[in-house]
Structures
1.
Amino acid sequence: MFYILRSVMPELPEVEMLVRHLAPLLQNKTVRKVRVRRERVLAGTPARILKKSLVGARFTGLSRRGKFLLFAFRRADGDEPRILVGHLGMTGRMYLAPINVPLPKHAAVVLGLDRENFIFEDTRYFGRFTLQTETVDKLGPEPLAEESTPEGFRQALRGSRQAIKVKLLDQTLVAGVGNIYACEALFLAGISPKRQARKLRPEQVAELWRSIRQVLSQAIERGSTLPLSYSGAGKRDGLFYFGGTPQAPQSYQERFWVYDRQDQPCRRCQTPIKRLVQAGRSTFHCPHCQRG
DNA sequence: CACCATGTTCCTTG
DNA sequence: CCAAGGAACATGGT
């Protein structure tokens, strides 16, 4: 079996899907060999330290925090579990492949397991594979955690005159929201992306929080119910690919309310969707539905 | 050649 | 110290 899990849009839902897929495949497997082909993704961890830590270690769990993957491993029974932090950046992928499959051009780190390779490939090398955990410690609340509330979120918005869309991308405010789902959540909440954060009324903050949770959990739900058994169906549809036969996925354009839909009619009111640039990134919104 | 791209981090400026 | 803006990172698609 040849597993490739691919996502072209690694935000929280895509990372969650990846974690669910990889967790059982890695569980209890032992690292025999570590190859580092791009030291940059180690983000400060020297390659020799990574090797010393991982060779002979066994994976004991995989979880997610925001867009980060947390690989738990231990070197011997009774050891404290240690954490390896992964991040897909913009173009990263992680998957298992048989040992005899040639490594991809942009393989950044390869872990040799007993009968397969764990491969982290990343064309742009913006991703991470590191023992450093500082950035994870700084993350804001998990939006989908049951106990999470918008209190800290509201607190952080108060006093900021930055646009709310830009604030949503701040991972210390809420973890895991990226450009796409920030646009989508603002549409659902009926809030203009240009609105200053501190100008949001309390009920708008509450609505935005609900929208964030809805957008993220629906994306996970949709991903979970897709037949994850196709490959090569399209290059930019943002879906997940495993080895197998292409099937008909929901088309890329039908997935979003506003993202990447410039000049197309709003699905609610037919007003053309507008694109603008905030903090150097594209924002898509409906000027009619998002006036709040 | 131009422009665009899902993310994070660093540097400057105020 | 903080907030905010911009560039940088590296590569590929259109």
2.
Amino acid sequence: MELKSEARIKVSTFDLVQIFDCGQCFRWEKETDGSYTGIAYKKVVNMRVETDENEDMKTLCIENTTPEDVKNVWTRYLDLSRDYEAIKGELKQKDEILSVAISYGEGIRILQQEPWETVISFIISQNNNIPRIKKCIANLCEAYGEFAGNYRGKSYYAMPGPEIMAKLTEADLAPIKLGYRAKYLIETAKSVLNDNGETLINSCNSSSEAAYEYLLSLCGIGPKVAHCILLFSMGKMESFPIDVWVKRVMNQLYNIPEKDAAAMKSYAQEAFGQYGGIAQQYLFYYIRKLEEEKGKS
DNA sequence: TTCCAGGTGGCAT
DNA sequence: ATGCCACATGGA
């Protein structure tokens, strides 16, 4: 077992609050010192950002990790190889409305999470709110997931795999409080195991269309959840998930009728192209920030 | 109390 | 193909 230490990485376009609080992931918690502790790929780490003298670069500090994990896990998880400055510049030029939204979430990055965990997380997310989604996922992992480590006195557990979930009954899941979604998880776990999880794993390298069709075949996954999985775990950056918030923001800013998801989808394709999913995150974050500010006043 | 949440499955047209 | 509606749970 290699000794864990702290890794320091120069980053730009990077804000932990925005990355972990923009609805794409549910497993990171803010510590009292402002850092975030969470788990991904069965590894528990703590992250904080130090601002340098030189304004435009920052240092990401990852505690409780190894150089190997930085290289093999965190660089990809945090999408550090992608040039978000260039993408933001391009999107701002294309669309003035989006330009404003981007200014609210300059530090957002799209994570590349584990496909299975993302499948489960977003099945749970349907017709549900973010605090409760987090609770459900934490309950599920604590009850049936593998112990992954301790940090600052707290225990962390991985998402149980399909081989574990396929054997559970709805009664087993009752204490998790998933509601009617419990049976969807069990059904989906069984389906994924039909080919030993290979189609799901290979979906990262498949075309977006093929991956989308496969995801739709799973119980509890419709168009919106499928697009979230494509975007947040498979690097399909053009995927444009349309949920209640995006409907709201597309209606308010672009005057597209609230219920016309087809028009929103085609607008995104035209205006945002291959970065539709990134644009969607800026819009999602923006409308939620506006609502939050409205609620306070 | 009623409404709502990162929607989908099932059923009727 | 499209339009309803039920669905568990908990916070506002």
